Amino acid sequence: MKVTQQALAIARIQTGSAAAEDKARVVAWDRLNSMLSTLDSKTSVLLRFNAIVVAALAYVLVIAPTEPVMGTNATVKLMGQLIGHGSLLASVVSCGFAFPVINVQWEFFGMRIDRPTEAESAFDDAALARMGDLAAHRIRLYSWAWRLAVVGGIGFAILVGIGTLH
């Protein structure tokens, strides 16, 4: 549904000239758009967090791999390396789950990847179902991205703790 169509449908609801089913469909569509917008914002913050963790871990593990566990025994060094690399991997995979959640408005760029620009789909129950499926899919992706980001962050905190305590 184009923005102009949505605005017109909402105006019809407000003036009372829309059918009850159309009103319900537009309200549901608006709610799904709101959910997707919230996911988009949360994912943006999650990707920033992952960027910080990945940059810090890349520095610690690649550029200065001996600094966090300098002067410790071989077991602590190995444990630090395993935790660090595991955290780095979890954070990078988290980014992989998060990128598809970000909403890209292809119409803004003048192209559509699912259908030609001139072919507009009807605003019906099938379109609403597709929007619901999209929201559910992005919620699942965000859930996994968040879990993996937490694992990466905790691993980084443990690595910092090991480096600080030893």
Describe this structure in a few short sentences.
The chain has four helices and no strands. It is mainly alpha-helical and 166 residues long.
List keywords for this structure.
166 residues; mainly alpha; single chain; 74% helix
Write structural notes for this entry.
The structure is a single chain. With 166 residues, the chain is mainly alpha-helical. The protein has one domain. The protein has helices spanning 3-15, 20-63, 74-98, 125-165. Helix 3 (74-98) packs antiparallel against helix 4 (125-165). The longest helix has 44 residues, at 20-63. It is rod-shaped and about 75 Å long. The N and C termini lie far apart (59 Å).
Topology:
Blueprint: H1 3-15, H2 20-63, H3 74-98, H4 125-165
Q: What is the average of the pLDDT values?
A: 80
Number of strands: 0
Runs with pLDDT <50, length 5+?
108-113
**Element pattern in H and E:** HHHH
State the share of residues found in helices, binned by percent: over 70%
Structural class: mainly alpha
**Beta-strand residue fraction:** under 5%
Globally, the shape reads rod-shaped
- How is the main sheet built? none
Structure annotation, total helices = 4
